[in-house]
Design the sequence.
């Protein structure tokens, strides 16, 4: 039994009554009912097939002298899409879809193609051919938007609408079932169509029939262990790509580090929701934020292993809210810098407990401080979210754990101290949570293990801060590499084209190393330009966005290790007091928002092209498809 037959076998329909409404006659008709056997199950056949049931209903309506020129019931089935090569996607049942919603194909086509930013036409078989590769899920979402805009009445929510009249006869459509707003895909949409006539200036309904759907599709699916929504699975790493449900998962993301802090105050908690709403609206899929605040204002960890429950609940809210908007989070566990406590605060705690520590870098070597850090990691990973009741280490909303934001150990240029700490902590995190990915949080500076690569560093000092990009990421337990891109902080504060040249070479070098030496994805987890830089203007910031995004796409087109990027940082209106100069306000930075949104669309389309198991055998197809996607250079 195929899926459509299974669905049809599960409808439980009841014809409540058919009453002939005639102003000259008030004679009551005897009620007539039609049932499918109550004990029918998912795996058993009903007494009558779906088509036979409909035929009997129509016979009953004809007995009541009701016109049956149009089908009374139509199931809105999922669009049938077929890829023809790498250039064309065909909607095979487009004519049927238009007939179902009683709209002219030309009007529907104009809307769909405009929304999907592609070209298309009707072929001789009245099938819609669209340029490029279009996923079924994306097509359904856009078609649903057409229904919302041009079929459903915005006032009464009724589909009793028409774009044109035909000889004084209007079409009345009653909708049953539900539409899952989170997935934007139609579910069990039943249309019952009737005709109404204008008689003597007054509108009389000649007949009415109500088909009751007693078993909704979602409940039916769940009762058999099938989720009608796409499973909210954890993102995994396979080789040098991220994958989700067997598909590649290239990232367009953002940073907003302060979300836990503002969520701790009810007066500013709404700003967190604003961030996720606006990020989701432009297609961003991964956010990065702090899961630490050590000994500072609104501290999460007030002293070693002592936590403020209200602040922890604020972090719970951040994770919960991210999940609502289908955004995954990279949670960083401690800071290298003094902001929000960092390793300096751990050293203060150590000295307060009787240790004699003289350097902030003792954080990496002192056994007591290592235990302090491990205790914090254990507490966060084992935390049960008070909003979702899901333990953090089991929550697919969390994309990855970050050991530290921008670790440096300048007291040991050899890198041995930091390497030892990374090796111990990466394995420790994995021992608590083998499901989630782990990354270090590096800026990407090359060190002693790869002297030939230090030429790509932004300055000579970068090789002396105790980090070593290739060696560090080869540690057991590290799943992917991170790199930051800040030419204004590393080269010169004055804005110039040198920034863009450096960004190109810096990103390309790390993608090559991720593929050649590491065999893992590399994520550019921070990049941006500050409004405080001399010579800054928004046009240059947009050029920086374009540069980073093009470099990401160059890797994406080849199925490469360049796994995506996260802009530093997205801000909502009203949070200006937290702005460090790098904030991108999506609601007013219109060009930047357009660039970010376009990058999201392109990566989303690529992510739907093929599964990881194909071992990228279709590289040529992917390359051709993305050539079409990135052909509009004026837009990116």
Sequence:
């Amino acid at each position: 039994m195929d899926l459509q037959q299974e669905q049809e076998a599960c409808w439980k329909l009841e014809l409540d009554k058919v009453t002939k409404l005639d102003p000259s006659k008030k004679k009551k008709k005897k009620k007539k009912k039609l049932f499918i056997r109550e004990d029918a199950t998912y795996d058993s056949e009903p007494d009558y097939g779906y088509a036979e049931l409909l035929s009997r209903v129509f016979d009953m309506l004809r007995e009541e002298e009701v016109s049956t020129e149009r089908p009374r019931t139509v199931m809105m089935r999922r669009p049938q899409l077929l890829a023809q090569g790498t250039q064309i996607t065909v909607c095979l049942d487009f004519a049927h879809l238009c007939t179902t919603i009683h709209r002219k194909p030309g009007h529907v086509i104009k809307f769909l193609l405009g929304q999907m930013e592609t070209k298309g036409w009707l072929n001789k078989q009245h099938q819609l051919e669209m340029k490029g590769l279009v996923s079924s899920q994306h097509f359904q979402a856009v078609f649903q938007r057409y229904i919302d805009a041009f079929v459903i009445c915005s006032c009464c929510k009724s589909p009793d609408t028409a774009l044109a009249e035909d000889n004084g006869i209007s079409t009345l459509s009653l909708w049953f079932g539900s539409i899952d707003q989170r997935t934007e895909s139609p579910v069990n949409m039943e249309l019952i169509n009737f005709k109404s006539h204008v008689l003597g200036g007054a509108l009389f309904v000649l007949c009415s029939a109500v088909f009751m759907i007693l078993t909704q599709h979602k409940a039916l699916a769940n009762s058999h262990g099938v989720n009608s929504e796409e499973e909210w699975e954890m993102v995994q790493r396979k080789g040098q790509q991220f994958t989700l449900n067997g598909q590649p998962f290239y990232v367009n993301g953002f940073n907003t580090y302060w979300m836990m802090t503002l969520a701790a105050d009810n007066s500013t908690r709404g700003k967190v929701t604003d961030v996720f709403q606006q990020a989701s609206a432009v297609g961003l899929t991964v956010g990065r934020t702090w899961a630490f605040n050590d000994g500072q204002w609104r501290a999460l960890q007030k002293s070693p292993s002592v936590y403020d429950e209200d602040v922890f609940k604020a972090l719970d809210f951040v994770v919960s809210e991210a999940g609502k908007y289908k955004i995954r989070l990279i949670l960083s566990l401690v800071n290298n810098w003094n902001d929000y406590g960092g390793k300096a605060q751990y050293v203060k705690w150590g000295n307060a407990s009787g240790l004699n520590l003289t350097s902030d870098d003792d954080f990496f070597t002192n056994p007591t401080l290592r235990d302090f850090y491990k205790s914090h990691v254990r507490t966060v990973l084992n935390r049960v979210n008070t909003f979702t009741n899901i333990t953090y280490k089991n929550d697919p909303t969390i994309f990855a754990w970050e050991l530290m934001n921008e670790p440096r150990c300048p007291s040991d240029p050899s890198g041995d101290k930091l390497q030892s700490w990374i090796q111990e902590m990466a394995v420790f995190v994995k021992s608590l949570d083998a499901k989630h990915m782990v990354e270090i949080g590096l800026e990407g500076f090359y060190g002693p293990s790869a002297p030939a690569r230090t030429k790509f560093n932004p300055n000579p000092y970068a090789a002396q801060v105790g980090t070593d990009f290739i060696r560090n990421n080869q540690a057991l337990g590290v799943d992917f590499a991170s790199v930051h891109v800040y030419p204004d902080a590393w080269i010169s504060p004055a804005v110039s084209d040198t920034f863009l040249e450096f960004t190109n070479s810096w990103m390309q070098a790390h993608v090559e190393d991720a593929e050649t030496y590491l065999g893992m994805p590399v994520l550019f987890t921070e990049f941006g330009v500050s409004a405080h830089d001399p010579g800054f203007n928004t046009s240059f910031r947009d050029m920086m966005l374009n540069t980073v995004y093009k470099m990401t796409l160059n890797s994406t087109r080849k199925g490469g290790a360049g796994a995506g990027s996260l802009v530093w940082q997205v801000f909502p209106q009203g949070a200006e007091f937290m702005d460090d100069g790098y904030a991108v306000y999506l609601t007013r930075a219109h060009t930047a928002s357009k660039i970010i949104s376009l990058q999201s669309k392109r990566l989303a389309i690529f992510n739907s092209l093929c599964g990881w198991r194909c071992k990228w055998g279709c590289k040529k197809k992917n390359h051709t498809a993305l050539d079409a996607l990135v052909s509009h250079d004026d837009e990116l």
Observations:
- The chain is about 35% helix and 15% strand.
- The longest helix spans residues 497-518.
- The first strand starts at residue 73 and ends at 75.
- The chain has a mean pLDDT of 80.
